Amino acid sequence: RIRYSKYIICIVVCMMCFLFVIPQASAFVLYGYKLKDGASAFKFYIDSSSMEYKDSITNGYQYWNGKSSKVSISRTTTKSASRCDSYWDDHHFGPGYDNNFAGTEHLLNNRQTNPRENNWFWCKVYYNPKLYKYENLGGYSYTVRKGVAAHEFGHVLGLAHTSTKSSLMCQYGD
Q1: Which of 57, 93, 112, 172 has its CA 20 to 30 A from that of 15?
Q2: Rounded mean pLDDT, 165-174
Q3: Average pLDDT in the 31-59 region?
């Protein structure tokens, strides 16, 4: 009787682990390739075009600090020291893309590369000025803008989109 109870408890614990731990592990999907030289002592630069939104961008990027001992992110005011530049730019959001909050380009040797096919060294993040703006100007709250910045920096770190709705890397989010 005691042995049977232990067996049942073991099955219940295993099922709970499967239901609660496994989905968390799948919340982040890697591209398959990676940021060359990693993200330790990683510097990002905010262009003057997006300086008005520097708080939400900076705090969104720095969300990743401490998530891993290999990630240390800080802002630089020197563009040449940066490995991720941020712009507020609408030419990257033409027909079919005007509802995107932002987009990330991965670069290697100053040329755009596909993170599913190659490693990269540097990134550019473009924020859509039609959407990434203050709430009172028809945009979104600070929290949403910070979440968008954190999501885009996830791409900089090598994370792809996931279908897990509660994940920061879900393209359509909750």
Answers
A1: 172
A2: 78
A3: 90
CA distance 66 to 89: 30
**Is the distance from CB of 46 to CB of 152 less than 8 angstroms?**
no
- Kindly report the backbone phi and psi dihedral angles of residue 101, in degrees, each rounded to the nearest multiple of 5, phi listed first: -70, -40
How many whole angstroms separate alpha carbon 130 and alpha carbon 88? Answer: 10
Q: Is 109 exposed, middle or buried (0-12, 13-18, 19+ CB in 10 A)?
A: exposed
Quick one: pLDDT at residue 173? Answer: 55
pLDDT tens-digit map of 8-34? 444 444 444 333 333 343 446 777 778
Rounded to 5 degrees, φ, ψ at 87 are -130, 150
pTM of the model: 0.80
